[in-house]
Design goal:
Number of domains: 2
Oligomer: single chain
Number of helices: 17
Largest sheet: 7 strands, mixed
CATH topology of the largest domain: Aldehyde Dehydrogenase, Chain A, domain 1
CATH architecture of the largest domain: 3-Layer(aba) Sandwich
Number of strands: 23
Distance between the termini: 68 Å
Strand order of the largest sheet: 15-16-17-14-13-19-20
Structural class: alpha/beta
Radius of gyration: 23 Å
Helix content: 25-40%
Strand content: 15-25%
Bound molecules: nicotinamide-adenine-dinucleotide
Length: 485
């Protein structure tokens, strides 16, 4: 399916590609073909120390933190242009790494460039002249300034390996921080394109560093005394562990974690429209999107109709070669994830849910690759494991509710609180319900993140917000300078 080959010994440290010290490597496997097509070094502690030292030197030594946000915005806009120009190369790598359908990965460069430009446009927010007069003495005031935190560790998962770095990198850069990026082991190659773009854009050496590492050496990065802040997207289990580590060092950490969001279909919803939205809002990226609404809550009176709509949408979408533009579902991103998904399909049946479409076994005609059958479970109650645990694959459950209060109660009866959707003909009424749902974001009749508005999880879905000006605040600390006029 792919002719790419990328085998490398290099890490990106101090503005150049340098050999890793470790001599240990991680293979990169195409999940659609099960073929190894790449390899990267697994950085050891010496490599990580070198990357942190380069970022520390760039923070003060070369002045990234001192030149002001407006000057940084010029560099960031140049980076956006260089990055966007590499779109085709980038999407081919992502799809070969994790099986993301090419129509989705094809947006990665544009999306990343857009985020860089958006944060460049917020330079005034960072350097705002914020004077607070003393109420008691007009001859004195306090200048409140946003100072960059310093060297930041950015740790990303494999499902949107570029977007979930850009969402951290762009605000960190405009804030004046320098970074060491650690991608997931499954997707370690795509960000090499960003490093090439950074070189071409003339980003000062050491401002952006990339180390590919295994989970065994990440501690060296997180606990490094010169790392001032950690930003993590990934599973709740690992996030909890990082929070403990950071807590010991009183190190601020942003955590964007798992989800099990609900889609509440109200009595008055247009089911034809709902059906047309299912693959975008409930199963985006083969179900590997943190905010997917994977629990569908249907009014008892229309339960069978809703199950039919969901099953029809899932049955009607093409699964296969992720490089084909009409493919909706690719493979699971890794052998491990494939095993997790197929396990849950078995567990759902053992728990007594009925299979409306999909089920165990391989999809017809897809004998190679980590393809699990897209599956819809009916007759599910909210206590079943398939309703409570994040599956992160093409699996949906449909749960009946008695009335709207019951629907909100079921939606909120979850450890997670990340996304969610409400489908209704009455947008204002849906907004009233949206306010009662315990999650960081809720979409009415669609779900799409807005780069200008905060995104983050409640409960076990995380701590802190990304996107919007709030995204910058995570990379700055406030200082009050008391002075006279
Ligand atoms: P993961 O937690 O296994 O890995 C995430 C990152 O942490 C990777 O870089 C990985 O190498 C590293 N890591 C793994 N184990 C580690 C350990 N023991 N110590 C230190 N680092 C470790 O997550 P994943 O499987 O890559 O990603 C899927 C998860 O990410 C899902 O739970 C999904 O919901 C979540 N996610 C959340 C958001 C969000 O914005 N809330 C977005 C995307 C994905």
């Amino acid at each position: 399916m792919t002719a790419l080959e990328m085998y490398t010994d290099d890490l990106f440290i101090g503005g150049e590609w340098v050999k890793s010290n470790s001599g240990v490597y991680v293979d990169v496997t195409d999940p659609a073909t099960e073929q190894v097509w790449g390899r990267v070094p697994a950085a050891d502690e010496a490599d990580i120390n070198k990357a942190v030292a380069a970022a520390k030197n760039a923070f003060r030594g070369k002045g990234w933190s001192d030149i002001g946000a407006a000057a940084r915005a010029v560099f960031i806009n140049r980076l956006a242009d260089e990055f966007e120009a590499r779109s085709e190369q980038l999407s081919a790598i992502i799809t070969s790494e994790n099986g993301t359908p090419i129509t989705e990965s094809g947006q990665a460069a544009k999306h990343g460039a857009g985020l860089l430009r958006y944060y460049a446009s917020l330079a005034d927010f960072v350097d705002a002249d914020d004077r607070r007069p003393y109420p008691s003495n007009p001859q004195q005031y306090t200048q409140v300034v946003r100072m960059p935190r310093g060297v930041c560790a950015l740790i990303a998962p494999w499902n949107y390996p570029v977007a979930l770095v850009m969402i951290k990198l762009a605000p960190a850069l405009i804030a004046g921080c320098t970074v060491v990026i650690k991608p997931a082991s499954e997707t370690p190659l795509d960000l090499r394109v960003l490093m090439d773009a950074a070189q071409a854009a003339g980003i000062p050496a050491g401002v952006i560093n990339l180390v590919t590492a295994t989970r065994h050496t990440i501690g060296a990065l997180v606990e490094h005394p010169d790392v001032a802040k950690v930003a993590f997207t990934g599973s709740t289990e690992v996030g909890r562990m990082l929070a403990e580590q950071c807590g010991r060092f009183l190190k601020p950490v942003t955590l964007e974690l798992g989800g099990k969001s609900a889609s509440i279909v109200l009595e008055d919803a247009d089911l034809g429209y709902f059906e047309s939205m299912i693959n975008k809002t409930c199963l985006r990226n083969t179900g590997q999107t943190c905010y997917n609404s994977t629990r569908i809550l249907a009014p008892r009176s229309r339960y069978d109709e809703v199950v039919d709509a969901v099953a029809s949408a899932v049955r009607g979408a093409k699964q296969g070669n992720p490089f084909e533009t009409d493919t909706v579902y690719g493979p699971s991103a890794s052998k491990k994830q494939f095993a997790t998904v197929t396990d849950y399909i078995r567990i759902g049946q053992e728990e007594g849910a009925s299979v409306a479409t999909g089920g165990s076994g391989r999809p017809d005609g897809l004998d190679v690759g980590y393809f699990a059958k897209p599956t819809v479970f009916a007759n599910v109650n909210n206590q079943m494991r398939v309703a409570r645990e994040e599956i992160f694959g093409p699996v949906l459950v449909v749960i009946p509710y008695e009335n709207e209060d019951d629907a909100v109660a079921i939606a909120n009866d979850s450890d997670y609180g990340l996304g969610g959707t409400i489908y209704s003909a009455d947008v204002n009424h849906a907004e009233e319900l949206a306010r009662r749902v315990e999650s960081g974001s809720t979409g009415i009749n669609f779900f799409q993140n807005n780069q200008a508005a905060p995104f983050g999880g409640w409960k076990d879905s995380g701590i802190g917000m990304e996107y919007g000006p709030e995204g910058i605040s995570a990379y700055t600390r406030l200082k009050s300078i008391h002075r006279t006029v």
